[in-house]
Design brief:
The complex is a heterotrimer.
Chain A lengths: L4 H30 L1 E4 L1 H7 L7 E7 L5 E2 L5 E7 L4 E7 L11 E8 L5 E7 L14 E4 L4 E4 L2
Parallel strand pairs in A: 1-2, 5-7
Antiparallel strand pairs in A: 2-4, 2-6, 3-4, 4-5, 6-7, 8-9
Chain B lengths: L1 H4 L2 H18 L19 E2 L9 E2 L9 E6 L4 H15 L3 E7 L3 H11 L6 E4 L3 H5 L7 E5 L5 E6 L7 H11 L1
Chain C lengths: L1 H29 L4 H29 L5 H6 L6 H7 L4 H22 L5 H25 L23 H30 L4 H32 L10 H26 L3 H24 L12 H25 L14 H31 L4 E2 L2 H21 L10 H7 L1 H18 L5 H18 L12 H26 L1 E7 L4 E4 L2 E12 L3 E12 L5 E3 L2 E5 L4 E5 L1 E5 L2 E10 L5 E9 L3 H35 L1
Antiparallel strand pairs in C: 2-11, 3-4, 4-5, 5-6, 5-7, 7-8, 9-10, 10-11
Helix pairs in contact in C: 1-2, 1-6, 2-4, 2-5, 2-6, 4-7, 5-6, 5-7, 6-7, 6-11, 7-8, 7-10, 8-9, 8-18, 9-10, 9-12, 10-11, 12-13, 13-16, 15-16, 16-17, 17-18
Classes of the chains: A alpha+beta, B alpha/beta, C alpha+beta.
Chain lengths: ~150, ~180, ~650
């Protein structure tokens, strides 16, 4: 089974190349399914997101919408970008900086009823922090709301 | 075949390099301004916090001249760190009033003797009620208030040396 | 004065690096090998100077000299002693000084201890090391001077990020950095060999211990970092596929591949070009990782000082060194003669497969990490997280680990397929038995990946020890022991990972003081919430007692901590380690009616993950010791024979 001397190097190079191409194809197919796209509530409403697909939802927590369910560990709240409102639910320990009127990026998926079930709420340890995904929005001083910049 | 393939790593790297460079050119995350900016200062009246400075009333901020309102505490270390910058602002002609949070008069006196006293008036907010009303979440914080009692700017955290020119500019523009 | 002395030491070191580069140039161009003797003291002095300047910076931190800007912004006089020292590298400037120090000391060590390498390649290697160092000296001196003074020193400093105020900081970054930057030696060796066109077995033998040493530290650093994130972030996870973590994993993957291909080159003089390529890639990954972490172009959950301008500088260094090395590779490798051939059934082939799989994993991690950056260039914002990495890295890792067991059971050069099959019989039987037994016990109660992970871990554990079968254990060379222990460590770690994802029980409750909670055989009694205070923080602490079965009750105290300087809240999980797993309790926020949120995990055998990591590093250390000792023994024998 000895390989021909002249060809061995070429075979190794081709094997490496094949491995890299295989990696790229694998990555491409997995990324198509698993990369979580960023949606604002109006994006989600207009484009439609199929239930169960992992996405990131970003916006503001609507004032007065945050309440805790009787189990003590589940919260419900509405996320808005001032054009659309999406109801959301999170079970777990919310970050300290998560509060009404502040920006939030929630990781999770929609359930069939249209509620966004968050598995993770992202908040940086700085209340002035604004997630990069919300870039292009400005904070309205009077109404304390996020607006898309004109 | 092999001859051409050996250039592949370099080409791949150049592609990544382009990607990194484009990533660097992208704008950064930005900061949200305080909600109270542009709003009038909430009304309050506080007793004097130091033996040699008068008490503080919110009406003092509507006397026609822009002033700084510094929120500090004698027990707060960054407040001591920002003392030189406040003194510099004072020397540049900026009037500074202060609210001492959850503090006691002897402690405030000691703090001012040790780190200098740039303040005109100091009010004592023993239970952080005014601090809450101002929407301030920690010490130190500094508000720039125009001559009519409206908040122009909120600086969260200690004022560092490079912040001084910015604050001076906001005060100058308000005149 | 101390700060000025540190700065002077750095400038002198930079000047010596320049001299070192010049000497290498003249030595190589003029063919004067004797210049190597002049380079040795230059490189050693440079190492001593960088080490000295780093020690001086530590001194400034310990003394809390607030007139130094770096100390004032990152330290605090009230901080415990350990964190003052650790604060030295808990910031950008200090960590870059650590980088340069490791680079300088490693260069000095290569000058002092390397005796096996050809003199011209040795010169070229030291020249390359000096060239890389120069870029980082420039970065340190012009863009991130750690010794800069403040005009008006503040009375006290601003403190260190509370997440970093942890014993983990004292250990994790230095080990990781030694590994990361230690790979620069492999890079310089590769550049040196390309310059002198001497890529052969002797070269690989000389390079291997340096790669091994860096790889050991990298392994330890990653293991420590994973455990640190596990208990400090309070999320119950030990790996998040965060860009910062990937940045440390990618050099490790490349270094692991390099280690194995260097063995092929050293033993059989094959895989010449490939080994050189990996040596370049390994340190390139270190630099790319540093760039990703420091420039802030990717968002991360871990705390890091980020500055895009410095990112530009590092990107420039990346282009210069990686681009330069790859161009040199493309120009020169065609003139390197091809190495030895090998048969299809041989250890060489298994190691080639090992290398290909490691490279594929490296590529997948790299693509996944950079994908958000790629899509953002086209206006889409995405995040790539654990679902992607678990799905594709998981299965390939399983295949890789299986080949890992097969490699040592296959002979060098030429083997018979039947003989290999016979040697692998026992591990194969274990594989089948584990598959059937686990399937019968727990089919459908765990995911497919953890299921396969446990099965493969059992078989590979047996397969890893198999090379010792029928051997005289006393006379087995130390590096064989090292290999066996490192491979066994991989199986142990894999078992821990699979067990954690298969058997972890999680419970999320809102409980009042006085309540009792039962989960996974544990009974937790929530006694009360008490306020407590530490050196520079206050906390709400949950006093709880836990017991299992009829066992004794143990008190645990999870906390929610508030730091004032700078104001931050952190979660201090309570961990209770038992031989068969860990109980992990996190105290959350206050809910209505005096209840508190609590998260309780029972993680069976999760500790195996880090135990495996330590075993891998230990195996590496034994192999290093074994090879070096053999070198000494041979030298002594030679001397005796001559006398």
């Amino acid at each position: 089974m000895a390989m021909k001397a002249k060809h061995q190097r070429l075979i190794l190079v081709l094997a490496a190349l094949a491995a890299l191409i295989a990696a790229a194809l694998l990555a491409a197919s997995a990324l198509k399914d698993e990369a979580a796209y960023f949606y604002t509530p109006s994006d989600a409403k207009t484009k439609g997101v199929e239930p169960g697909k992992a996405i990131r939802l970003g916006g503001m927590v609507v004032k007065g919408s945050l309440h805790r369910l009787p189990d003590g560990v589940t919260i419900r709240f509405d996320v808005t970008d001032n054009k659309a409102i999406v109801p959301a639910k999170f079970t777990g320990i919310a970050p300290d900086l998560f509060r009404e009127g502040s920006g939030v990026v929630a990781e999770g998926a929609f359930d069939p009823s249209g509620t966004f079930v968050a598995t993770n709420l992202l908040a940086k340890h700085d209340e002035r922090y604004m997630p990069r995904e919300l870039e292009g929005m400005t904070y309205d001083e009077k109404s304390h709301e996020l607006r898309k910049a004109k | 075949m092999t001859r051409t393939l050996i250039w592949l790593p370099l080409l791949l790297f150049l592609a990544f390099f382009g990607l990194f460079a484009s990533g660097l050119l992208k704008p950064d995350d930005h900061l949200i301004n305080s909600r109270l900016v542009g709003q009038p200062l909430p009304a309050f009246s506080l007793p004097a916090a130091a033996s040699d400075r008068p008490a503080l009333d919110s009406t003092e901020f509507a006397t026609g001249k822009p002033r700084l309102l510094n929120i500090f505490a004698s027990w707060c270390v960054p407040c001591a760190a920002e003392a030189p910058q406040l003194l510099a602002l004072k020397q540049a002609g900026v009037e500074i009033d202060a609210i001492a949070i959850r503090d006691a008069r002897p402690d405030v006196d000691r703090f001012l003797t040790r780190y200098g006293n740039p303040y005109t008036r100091i009010g004592l907010d023993a239970r952080s009620t005014v601090q809450m009303a101002l929407g301030s979440s920690g010490v130190p914080e500094t508000f720039v208030v125009d001559g009519r009692g409206k908040i122009l700017h909120q600086h969260i955290g200690d004022i560092r040396a490079d912040d001084v020119p910015d604050i001076l500019k906001i005060v100058k523009d308000a005149r | 004065m101390i700060a000025e002395a540190g700065l002077v030491a750095l400038w002198l070191a930079a000047a010596l690096a320049f001299l070192q580069l010049a000497l290498a140039w003249f030595g190589l161009v003029g063919g004067k090998d004797e210049l190597l003797e002049a380079m040795r003291p230059v490189a050693v002095t440079q190492g001593v100077l960088t080490g000295l300047s780093f020690l001086l910076l530590i001194t400034l931190f310990v003394q809390s000299d607030m007139s130094v800007a770096l100390v004032a912004t990152n330290s605090h006089s009230m901080k415990p002693w350990l964190y003052k020292v650790a604060g030295t590298w808990g910031n950008h400037e200090g960590s870059m000084l650590l980088w340069v120090t490791v680079m300088g000391v490693a260069g000095g060590a290569v000058a002092l201890f390397e005796r096996a390498l050809r003199r011209d390649t040795h010169m070229a290697t030291l020249g390359a090391q000096a060239a890389i160092s120069l870029g980082f000296y420039a970065f340190l001196l012009f863009a991130s001077n750690p010794f800069a003074r403040l005009e008006t020193p503040p009375p006290d400093g601003q403190g260190l990020n509370p997440l970093l105020q942890d014993p983990g900081l004292a250990f994790h970054p230095p080990t990781l950095y030694v590994g990361y930057v230690g790979l620069s030696v492999a890079f310089s060796f590769a550049v040196g060999a390309l310059l002198t066109r001497r890529v052969d077995a002797a070269f690989a033998k000389a390079m291997r211990p340096w790669v091994l040493a860096a790889w050991i530290m990298l392994t330890l650093g990653i293991t420590a970092g994973s455990y640190w994130a596990y208990y400090e972030l309070g999320w119950g996870g030990w790996w998040f596929w965060d860009p910062v973590e990937n940045a440390s994993l990618m050099p490790w993957l490349a270094a692991t591949a390099l280690l194995h291909s260097a063995t092929v080159l050293a033993t059989r003089d094959a895989l010449r070009a490939w080994t050189i390529m990996l040596a370049v890639v390994a340190f390139s990954m270190s630099m790319v990782g540093t760039f990703l972490v420091r420039s802030g172009i990717l968002t991360s959950v871990h705390a890091f000082a980020v500055d895009p301008q410095r990112g530009t500088f590092i990107l420039g260094l990346l282009a210069l060194y990686i681009g330069g090395a790859l161009a040199l590779f493309a120009l020169r490798i065609g003139t390197v003669r091809e190495g030895q051939q090998f048969e299809l059934v041989s250890r060489e082939t298994t190691l080639v497969i090992n290398n290909l799989l490691l490279t594929v994993i490296l590529g997948l991690v790299l693509i996944g990490t950079l994908y958000p950056l790629m899509t953002e260039a086209f206006g889409h914002k995405v995040s790539v997280g654990p679902p992607y990495f678990d799905r594709i890295v998981g299965p390939i890792t399983l295949v890789l680990v299986m080949f890992m067991a097969a490699g040592p059971l296959t002979r060098w050069r030429k083997d018979r397929a039947k003989a290999v099959g016979t040697r692998m019989l026992v591990p194969a039987i274990v594989l089948v038995v584990a598959f059937v037994a686990l399937g019968a016990l727990a089919w459908g109660r765990m995911g497919i990946l953890p299921f396969l992970g446990l099965t493969v871990a059992a078989a590979v554990a047996v397969g890893s020890v198999a090379p010792l079968w029928k051997r005289n254990l006393r006379r087995t060379p130390l590096f064989n022991w090292g290999m066996v222990i490192a491979h066994l460590g991989c199986a142990v770690s894999l078992a821990g990972m699979a067990s954690d994802s298969a058997f972890t029980v999680e419970k999320l409750v809102a409980a009042k003081p006085g309540d009792t909670i039962s989960t996974a055989g544990w009974t937790l009694h929530f006694d009360r919430i008490v306020p407590v205070a530490g050196d520079n923080w206050t906390a709400l602490q949950g006093d709880m007692t836990v017991s299992r079965g009829n066992g004794a009750a143990v008190a645990i105290h999870p906390q929610s901590r508030f730091f004032t300087n700078p104001p931050t809240t952190t979660t201090e999980a309570a961990l209770l380690t038992r031989w068969d797993g860990q109980l992990y309790v996190v105290l959350g926020q206050e809910a209505e009616q005096g209840r508190w949120q609590m998260r309780i995990w029972w993680k069976p055998f999760v500790t195996l993950i880090w135990l495996g990591g330590i075993m891998i590093a230990l195996g590496g250390a034994l192999a290093l010791l074994g090879r070096e000792r053999r070198g000494w023994v041979m030298k002594i024998r030679k001397r005796r024979a001559m006398a």
